[in-house]
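The records we work with from here on pair a chain with its fold. Taken together, the tokens spell out the fold as the letters spell out the chain. To see the layout at work, look at the sequence and tokens printed below.
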Amino acid sequence: MRPYLRVANVYEDRIDTSDLMEMNIPPQDFERYRLEEKDILLNEGQSPEYLGRPAMYRGIPADVAFTNSLLRFRAKPGVLPEWALLVFRRHLHAGRFRCEARGTTTLTHLTATRLNRVDFPRPPLAEQELIVADVRKKLDVIQRLAPTITTAKKRAAELRGSLMADAFAGRLVSQDSADEPISVVLERIRAERAMRHRVSRTLQSRNRQTYQEEALF
């Protein structure tokens, strides 16, 4: 029995091995589909927004294969695997993979042939290294800030709810004892709306009656 990775294991820039499956793979097939460290895996079949979702295999677990529901990209000389991962992540979010996909609105496929059509920039290695390092620093900052942003959004939602409650209770400005309570104001508005509705129905009824009387002559 050999472990293997499938679509359910491959997330963006992350491979989840908590639900790793195994099957009996013949030795010759295992060597063909066996992963090497820094291979890039992309989802071949997925919903359109996740098509081509890439992650780098970093050697864990060892001696693992991949199924044909995934595409493997192995960087050649002159291309950093980390650079390739950034390019594929960009294409994922820009919808580039979807332009080459075939399938339905719920499930699409990206074949190896169609992947070869996707543009792949190749700046000099030194430039790739600089870009990868710079992007990694920025992504690390974003990751550190993410919990703070989540907390701030939650707090903002709570404050918004509290503000609306205070506004309807009249606690945002100083109150005049002569002012009517909001409940009285709302009740008067409802009464006025009901009155307008009754008047409108009465006028419509009279118009129909007048029309009918005129039609008799």
About this structure: The chain has a mean pLDDT of 86. The CA atoms of residues 37 and 59 lie 5 Å apart.
